[in-house]
Amino acid sequence: MLAILALLAQSSPADIEAGKATFRIYCSPCHGRNAEGGPRGPDLTLRGERDPAQAIADGIPGSEMRAYRSTFSTDNIERLVNYIRSRERAPETVSGSAASGEKIFWGKGGCGACHRVGDRGGAFGPDLTRIGRARGLASLRESTVNPDADIPGGYRGVSVVTRDGKTIRGRELGYDAFSVRLADAGGAYHSFLRDEVERVTIEKRSLMPPFRGSPAELNDLLAYLTSLKGDSR
Fold this sequence. Notes:
The longest helix is centred in the first third of the chain and has 14 residues, at 13-26. It is globular, with a radius of gyration of 20 Å. The strands form two sheets. The protein has a five-stranded antiparallel beta sheet with strand order 6-5-4-3-7, with no helix packed on it. It has a two-stranded antiparallel sheet with strand order 1-2. It has helices spanning 2-5, 13-26, 28-31, 52-58, 74-86, 98-106, 131-134, 137-145, 215-227, and strands at 116-117, 120-121, 157-162, 167-175, 179-184, 189-193, 197-202. Helix 2 (13-26) packs across helix 5 (74-86), helix 4 crosses helix 5 and helix 8 (137-145) crosses helix 9. The chain folds into three domains: 2-86, Orthogonal Bundle (Cytochrome Bc1 Complex, Chain D, domain 2); 98-151 and 208-227, Orthogonal Bundle (Cytochrome Bc1 Complex, Chain D, domain 2); 157-202, Roll (SH3 type barrels). The chain is of the alpha+beta class.
């Protein structure tokens, strides 16, 4: 029956909205808010050979995708599939030069200061070694020019103002009613008790600045990012 769900030709707007709501809660931390790929899950808007209903129910061996058969009813799996199918689109290509984009990534763009590709780069931002396999072009473009649109799970920003007026800003590692932990852009780890600091603010903006290059440079950078399928650079 699950295989049949993946082949459904029609679905109501209400079913799609219900599937979207479930997706946002359970799936978006890995696959992104709009199913276009995230820090731990691939872009689901490009149809593959795998039956999504089967993958949702039974998980994918050897991956982080666990089984949801005991979590979701058959109807809920159907609604999830309907939402995923509603997001499908044709593959996109970019006309830029991956070689030029690689130079921008490690040079002018400053991307390598925070992002790792293979065994090179920083660890402050998400690892991009396989980003071209996990994310589609539209998602990569939006994340590059408007990083505030969808901040990856685990990369929320936080700023702490100490009692002597010093501000420390970085990636949140832990936050509750009693303490806050963060890593700054230089890789230093900080931990504070809440009553030891003046103020703690969870950032509503991404720690990553938007790309400010020309349209041609953006296309080159995107060509490089989409070329990253897991090989070290």
